[in-house]
C-alpha cells in the first residue's frame, strides 16, 4: 500500500525534512538533532510522599516565615499567625482609626435593623440577631485576617438555619428547645469551620462552584424577599413553607381580608425610599465582585437610609398609634447584652446529632460566603488571605458565639461592601460596630418597640435584592452552558422547593461536572500549521494539515482509571474513522500513530494498562505507536513498567515535530 | 531596573530573535511571522449540547451501522444488536462447534464442584449453585457479545452476597426468608446492571480503579480461602465473621478436639494434587490478564483435576464409610432442574428495600468482574466489546435467574481462562456447559452424596488462590504509590474487617484520588531546551534555561471551580519565589508572565474569574500577563467574557516561543 503512493510521500517527506531542519537539526552537523525526553532525577519515596502532602494541604506554605528564625521570634510569629491583630496592631495609628470609625459607625447603622429582621428569618427573637453582631465581630477582629469583611448574621444563612431547624422543632410551640438547637447547630457550625481550617481541608469549599453559588444566592434572595411579604402586606396567617407556590397561595388567599393597607403604605413608601437611595447613590456591588461606576463618596446615603427609615417610621407609629389599626410592630426586644448559653447547647441526646448535621450544613454555607467575600476584597486591595486561617477564625467566633447566645454569624456581602466604601482600614471597624451594638443592646432597644415590621421587611428586601446577580448569570450563560445549568438548577431548586433542595442540587451538579471532567476528557487530532513546525488541533485551526501516513492524537487529561478505557477506545475510534476516510479517498493508510502527551500530567496503573492495550491493538493493525513529550511523572512510570521497552525507547520523542520527522524518514525508507 | 541589565538582555534578546527566525519567521520577508491563535467556528447551542451528550453517553457511536440503511435492514440490525447470537450464529460451523464443545465440557467439569462450594459461601443449599450455572449461561449465550467469558456463580460475589444477606437474616434460623432475600437481591442486581446498560451509564463502573480491584480481589480470595478452613479441617463450630482475626481464633480454639484428622488427610492430599496440576500445567492466568509461558496444550489437566478429585474422593468415602469417622460430606443435593421462584421475590415489605440495597452492591461488583474479564479477552482476541450491551445482557440474565431459583451469576476469572485455553470460539461453550449442568441436575446429583466437604474446600482454595495477584501489586507499587495505597487499603479492609468495608475503602480511595486530581492539578515552570525552540518543564529537563525577565508557567489541567483558586495562588507563589531568587542574585526582575495553556482543555466561569484576578494581581506588580496556545474551548470563552480585551488580544500567542520572542523584543525596546 505504501509503495503505491511513494512519490507523494516522498515529496511530503522531503518537505517535512526541510522543516525539521529549522527546528531540531543542528545546523553545523546536518544530522537531525533530536533531543532526548528527560527522565527526572529519581526522588525517594518519602520525599515524593511529603511533596504530595505539602501540595495538597500546605500548598500555601504557611510555615515559610518561620524558616531560619530564632526560637523567640518563632513564638512571636506563631502568636501573630493565630492572632493577626498583634501583627497589624503594631502599625495602627489615628489616621487608620479615623477610617475604621466612620466605616464602623456606618455598618452599625446598617446592621442593627438588618439583625432584627434576620433573626426573624431564623425564627428567633430579635435580640439574638443583635447578640450575633456583638460577640462574633470582636472575636473575628482579633483572629481574622480580612480587613474589609463585616461580620454578623446574614440573610441566607439565617433563612437556611431557620428552615433546617424548623424541620426538627416547631419554633412557636417549643421556642426553648428550638433556641437550644439553634445554639447547638451554631456550636457545630463553628467546630466544622475550625476543623476544616486546622486540618487544612479548606479546599473542600471550592467544590461549590461559583455558578452554583450565584444561583443559590439569587434563589435564596428571592425566597427571603417573598417571606417579607408577610410583614410587608401585614398578613396574619402565613405559610411556613418557603417555596414560591406556597407563599403566593398564602398571599392571594389573604388578599381579601388579610392585608392591612396602613402597613402597605408604610412599607411601600419606605421601600421606595431605600431603593431610591441605593440605586442613586450606591454602585452596584454584587456578590461576584463587580463594581459599577456610581458616586462612591455618597456611599453613606444608602448606608444610613435604613436607620433613618427605622427612626422615622417608629416615630410615626408612636405618634399616630398606627399599631391599633393593625400595623404590626416589633413590640419587645430584650434589653441588655448576651446572656451565657453554654448550658443550653445539647451535648447529649437526640438533638445532638440533629444539631450536628444542621451545623455542618450551615457552617459550610456560611464559610463559603465569608471566604468568597474575603477573597474578593483581598484581591481588590491586593493583600493575601489565608483561607485555612480564616476558617479557624470564623470557626472560633461561632463556637464562642454559640456560648454567648449568638447564632451562626459570617461575612455579609452588603455590609462588607459598605464597609469597604466607607474606607475601613482594618478589622477595627468591626470592633466599632460591635461597640455600637453593645450600646444599643444596653440602652436603646426599648425604643424599637414601635418599629413597624413592614420597615424591617422593606430593609431586608432592599438588602437581599443585590444578591440576585443578573449580570453574573448572563456572563455564566455566555461562558459555560453547563455552569448555567448548575446556576439555574440551584436557583429554581431554592425557589420552587426549599433552600436545602437548592443547595443539594448545586452540590450535585457541581460534582457531576467534576465526574464528567474525569471520565470524558477531550482528545484532539493534530495537524501541522503551515509555515511553522507547530502541531495543533485541526478543529481549532482548519488550515492545519494532516501528515500522510501519520495520525497525531493529543490526550488532554491525566490518564486515570476513570478515563483510561475511554481514552483508549476514543483513540482507536479516531483511527477507524480516519482510515475509512483515507480509504474512500484512495490515500495511503496510516502507519504511525503519534500520541502527543504534553497535557498528560499523570498516569496510573490503569492508564499504563490502557497504553499497553493500545499498543497491542495497533500492532495487530500494523501501526506503530509513537509517544511525544511525556511529562516527568509519565516518563517515570513508563520506565517503571515495561511499557517503555514494549513501545521502544526510540519511539518516544521530545516534540511532535521530532516524532513526525522520524516517522516520515521511515516512511521514505520503506517506500 | 531593566536599564541596568540592558546589555545582558540585549544579547539574550538577539539570541532569541535568531531562534525565532528559524521557527516562526517567514524567511522571504524577514518580519516575524506570528500565527494567530485560531478561534474555532461558533457552534450553535443545540449542536454543542448534543455533542456533549453524545461523547458522554454514546461515545462508542452505537448507531453507526444503522446509518443509511433501509428500514428492513435496520430491524434486522436492531435484533442482532440485542441478540448477537443472530449475528455470529449465521457464520457458525462444525469446526467452531468442535472448539466450543471441548471448551464447554471442560468448564462444566470445573464448574460443577465449584458451584456446590460457592453456594455454601452464599449460605445457600448446594443445588442453587448448580441452578445458577444452568439458566444464566443460556441467556448470556443469546444476548452477550463476549466469546470467551464463562458465566456462573463466582467466589467473590458469593461471599459478598452471603455476608450482606447474613447481616439481615440468619440463614440457619430462617432459611426460607434468607433464600427469598437472595432472589430479591439477585433480581435487583439484574435490574441495576440492565439499567446501567440501557441508560448508557456503564462508565460508572470505571470509578472502581484497577488497583482497588486487585486489592479487593486478593483480600476476598484470602478471606474465602480462610473460610474453607472449616471444611478443610473438619471444624464443627466455626465463626460467622469473615475477618482473619475471628477466623483464626475459631481455628485455634478448636485445635484440640474440633479438628478431624481423616478430613485433613483427604483435604491436604487432594489440595496438593490440585495445586500441583495447576502449577505444572496451567499458565499463570491472573486477573490482570498476564499470561505465563507454560504449556498451554495441557490446559485440560488442571481443568478436570477438580472433577477427578471429586470422583476419587467420593468413591473413597463411599467404600470406607469415612463419614462415620466424622468426615463431613455433602449428604443431599436436590435432584431436578430449577424450580420457578418469581413468587419468592419480595416485591413488598421491609425486605424489598434491603434486597434492593444488597442487589445494587452485588450487581455492581459482579458487573465490574464480568466487564474486566470481557475486556481482557476481547483485547487478546482483538474484537470489540460494547460495555453497555454487555451490561444489558448480564442484567437480563440475572433478572431471569432470580425468577428461576438462581443467585447472582457473572463471569468467572478462572473458568473464563480455561474456556479460552480450551479453544472456545463462541458463547456456545456456555450452552454446552449449561447442558452438562442440566444433565447433572437431572441425573447425577444423588451421586454427590458422599462427596467430602474437604474436597470442595480444596477446590475452592485452589480456584481462588489465583485471585491473589502479587505481580500486579508489585507493578502497582512501582508505577503509582497512591494506587498502591488504594490496593492495600482494599486488601486489608477485606481481610481484617469484611468484604463490605474493603469495598467501601476501595471506592473511597478511588474517589479521593479523583478529587485530588481535580483540586490540586500540577503546574510547571518552563525553560528553553538548548539548541531547540522548545520550552519544557525545568524539573524534567535540568538543562533547560530560563529566559531573563520572563517567567513561563504551564497549567496542567482544565481550570474549573474546584482548582481555579489553587492555580491562581500557585502561580503567584511561583512568581514570589522566583522574584526572591532573582533579587538575591541581582538579576533583572520579571516583567512578563507567560502562561502556557496547551493542557488547559476547558475553563469555566470560576476559571475565567481566576484569570481576571491573576491579571489584576500581576498588574499591581507591573508584570504583563501573556497567554500561549489556549485551546478551542478556552479561546472561545476568553472571547465570550471580557478577559480577551482585558489581557489584550495581542498578548495571546500560538506558541511559547512566539510569546517569548515578542516579550524579548519589548524588553529590548524598553532598555
TrEMBL record, chains A, B:
Keyword presence, Transport: yes
Source organism, top-level taxon: Eukaryota
Membrane topology: Multi-pass membrane protein
GO cellular component, as recorded: membrane
Keyword Membrane on entry: yes
Polar residues bias spans: 19-29
Key words of the record: Membrane, Transmembrane, Transmembrane helix, Transport
TM spans (from-to): 149-169, 181-199, 211-229, 259-277, 298-319, 358-378, 390-410, 430-448, 455-477, 489-512
Basic and acidic residues bias (residue ranges): 7-18
Record region (Disordered): 1-33
Family matches, as InterPro entries: S04_transporter_CS, SLC26A/SulP_dom, SLC26A/SulP_fam, STAS_dom, STAS_dom_sf
Subcellular location: Membrane
Cited PANTHER family: SULFATE TRANSPORTER (PTHR11814)
Stated family: Belongs to the SLC26A/SulP transporter (TC 2.A.53) family.
Protein name (record): STAS domain-containing protein
Organism: Malus domestica (Apple)
Amino acid at each position: 500500500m505504501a509503495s503505491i503512493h511513494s512519490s507523494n510521500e516522498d515529496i511530503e517527506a522531503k518537505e517535512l525534512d526541510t522543516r525539521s531542519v529549522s527546528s531540531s537539526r543542528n545546523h553545523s552537523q546536518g544530522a537531525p538533532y533530536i533531543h532526548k525526553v528527560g527522565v527526572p532525577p529519581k526522588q525517594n519515596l518519602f520525599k515524593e510522599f511529603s511533596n504530595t502532602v505539602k501540595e495538597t494541604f500546605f500548598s500555601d506554605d504557611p510555615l515559610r516565615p518561620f524558616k531560619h528564625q530564632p526560637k523567640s521570634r518563632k513564638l512571636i510569629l506563631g502568636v501573630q499567625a493565630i492572632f493577626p491583630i498583634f501583627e497589624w496592631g503594631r502599625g495602627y495609628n489615628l489616621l487608620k482609626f479615623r477610617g475604621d470609625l466612620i466605616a464602623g459607625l456606618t455598618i452599625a447603622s446598617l446592621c442593627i435593623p438588618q439583625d432584627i429582621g434576620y433573626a426573624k428569618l431564623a425564627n428567633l427573637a430579635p435580640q439574638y440577631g443583635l447578640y450575633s453582631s456583638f460577640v462574633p465581630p470582636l472575636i473575628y477582629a482579633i483572629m481574622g485576617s480580612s480587613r474589609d469583611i463585616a461580620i454578623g448574621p446574614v440573610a441566607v444563612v439565617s433563612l437556611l438555619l431557620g428552615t433546617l431547624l424548623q424541620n426538627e422543632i416547631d419554633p412557636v410551640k417549643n421556642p426553648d428547645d428550638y433556641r437550644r438547637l439553634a445554639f447547638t447547630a451554631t456550636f457545630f457550625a463553628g467546630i466544622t469551620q475550625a476543623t476544616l481550617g486546622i486540618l487544612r481541608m479548606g479546599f473542600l469549599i471550592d467544590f461549590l462552584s461559583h455558578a452554583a453559588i450565584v444561583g443559590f444566592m439569587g434563589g435564596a434572595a428571592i425566597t427571603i424577599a417573598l417571606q417579607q411579604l408577610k410583614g410587608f402586606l401585614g398578613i396574619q396567617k402565613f405559610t411556613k413553607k418557603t417555596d414560591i407556590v406556597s407563599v403566593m397561595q398564602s398571599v392571594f388567599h389573604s388578599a381579601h381580608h388579610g392585608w392591612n393597607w396602613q402597613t402597605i403604605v408604610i412599607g411601600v413608601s419606605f421601600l421606595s425610599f431605600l431603593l431610591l437611595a441605593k440605586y442613586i447613590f450606591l454602585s452596584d456591588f454584587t456578590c461576584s465582585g463587580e463594581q459599577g461606576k456610581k458616586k462612591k463618596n455618597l456611599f453613606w446615603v444608602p448606608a444610613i437610609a435604613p436607620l433613618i427609615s427605622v427612626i422615622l417610621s417608629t416615630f410615626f407609629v408612636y405618634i399616630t398609634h398606627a399599631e391599633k389599626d393593625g400595623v404590626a410592630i416589633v413590640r419587645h426586644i430584650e434589653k441588655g447584652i448576651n446572656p451565657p448559653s453554654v448550658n443550653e447547647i445539647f451535648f447529649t441526646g437526640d438533638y445532638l446529632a440533629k444539631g450536628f448535621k444542621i451545623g455542618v450544613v450551615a457552617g459550610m454555607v456560611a464559610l463559603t460566603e465569608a471566604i468568597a467575600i474575603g477573597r474578593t476584597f483581598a484581591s481588590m486591595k491586593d493583600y493575601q488571605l489565608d483561607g485555612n486561617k480564616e476558617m479557624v477564625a470564623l470557626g472560633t467566633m461561632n463556637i464562642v458565639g454559640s456560648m454567648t447566645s449568638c447564632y451562626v454569624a459570617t461575612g455579609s456581602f452588603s455590609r462588607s461592601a459598605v464597609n469597604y466604601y466607607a474606607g475601613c482600614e482594618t478589622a477595627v471597624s468591626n470592633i466599632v460596630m460591635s461597640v455600637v451594638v453593645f450600646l444599643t443592646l444596653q440602652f436603646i432597644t426599648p425604643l424599637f418597640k414601635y418599629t413597624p415590621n413592614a420597615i424591617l421587611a422593606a430593609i431586608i428586601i432592599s438588602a437581599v435584592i443585590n444578591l440576585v446577580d443578573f449580570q453574573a448569570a448572563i456572563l455564566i450563560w455566555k461562558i459555560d452552558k453547563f455552569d448555567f445549568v448548575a446556576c439555574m438548577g440551584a436557583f429554581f431548586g431554592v425557589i420552587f422547593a426549599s433552600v436545602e433542595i437548592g443547595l443539594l442540587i448545586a452540590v450535585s451538579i457541581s460534582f457531576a461536572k467534576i465526574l464528567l471532567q474525569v471520565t470524558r476528557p477531550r482528545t484532539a487530532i493534530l495537524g501541522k500549521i503551515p509555515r511553522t513546525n507547530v502541531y495543533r488541533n485541526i478543529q481549532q485551526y482548519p488550515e492545519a494539515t494532516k501528515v500522510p501516513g501519520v495520525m497525531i492524537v493529543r490526550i488532554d487529561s491525566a490518564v486515570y482509571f476513570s478515563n483510561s478505557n475511554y481514552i483508549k477506545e476514543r483513540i482507536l475510534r479516531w483511527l477507524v474513522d480516519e482510515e475509512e476516510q483515507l480509504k474512500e479517498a484512495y490515500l495511503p493508510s496510516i502507519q504511525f500513530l503519534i500520541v502527543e502527551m504534553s497535557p498528560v500530567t499523570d498516569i496510573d496503573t490503569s492508564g499504563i494498562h490502557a497504553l499497553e492495550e493500545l499498543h497491542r491493538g495497533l500492532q495487530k493493525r500494523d501501526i506503530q505507536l509513537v509517544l511525544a513529550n511525556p511529562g516527568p511523572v509519565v516518563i517515570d512510570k513508563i520506565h517503571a513498567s515495561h511499557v517503555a521497552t514494549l513501545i521502544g525507547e526510540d519511539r518516544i520523542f521530545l516534540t511532535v515535530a521530532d516524532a513526525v520527522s522520524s516517522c516520515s524518514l521511515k516512511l521514505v525508507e520503506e517506500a
